[in-house]
Amino acid sequence: MEKKLKMEKKKELRKQIARKKAGYSTAELNLLSAEILNRLEELPVFQEAHTVLLYHSLKDEVHTHAFIEKWADKKKILLPVVAGENLELHAYTGPKDLRTGSYGISEPTGELFTAYETIDVAIIPGVAFDANNHRLGRGKGYYDRLLPHIPAFKIGLCFPFQIIEDIPTEKTDISMDMIHSLPTR
């Protein structure tokens, strides 16, 4: 019964965040994204990283496309690829080597990357995060299956309105080491 209640609460939280996002224009989300990513670049953990796991953003996530391009020749950038029920990591080699994969996400066609222990920082999207560094994903569990294999420092990246008071968790949910956004205004 408790698991069912958690699932219902998570479903409702996803709807609440979607409603909040709908209150922002694309231009506003672009400006917020730029500010969030400018601050991310200033973090020592990012500055010192050689290998970075990022994500190619969907329209409702912090927009990472230009950020990936900016850093692609300075750091080894890895992006996830949906492979059945799991995520694989592939090296990003440029926009010409992206293809539309599952869920309409642009995915790299570069070489498969399996040296997870060499990833310095993992920058992870989410629907919502809380003060205890818990992450609410989209509900498919892709990152919860991948992240236990990655010992890197994990940063949840989000808009300020995606930080909420409390996310119900289960033992399979993977917490972040920090949440990166902007102060709420």
Q: How would you describe the overall organization of this protein?
A:
This protein has 185 residues and is an alpha/beta fold. The protein has five helices and twelve strands. The strands form three sheets. A seven-stranded mixed sheet has the order 6-3-2-1-7-10-12. Strands 9-8-11 form a three-stranded mixed sheet, with helices on one face. A two-stranded antiparallel ribbon has the order 4-5. Strand 2 (76-83) and strand 3 form a beta hairpin. The radius of gyration is 16 Å and the shape is globular.
Could you write a compact summary of the structure shown?
By secondary structure, the chain is of the alpha/beta class. The chain has helices spanning 2-22, 26-42, 44-47, 65-71, 142-146; strands at residues 51-53, 76-83, 86-91, 98-100, 106-108, 112-113, 121-124, 128-130, 135-136, 153-157, 163-164, 178-180.
The helix content is 25-40%
Instruction: Indicate the low-confidence ranges by residue numbers.
Output: none
> Count of DSSP E strands?
12
Q: Name the overall outline.
A: globular
Query: Cα-atom Rg, whole angstroms?
Result: 16 Å
- What composes the largest sheet? 7 strands, mixed
Structural class: alpha/beta
What is the average of the pLDDT values? 93
* Strand residue content: 15-25%
SSE layout and pairing:
Layout: H1 2-22, H2 26-42, H3 44-47, E1 51-53, H4 65-71, E2 76-83, E3 86-91, E4 98-100, E5 106-108, E6 112-113, E7 121-124, E8 128-130, E9 135-136, H5 142-146, E10 153-157, E11 163-164, E12 178-180
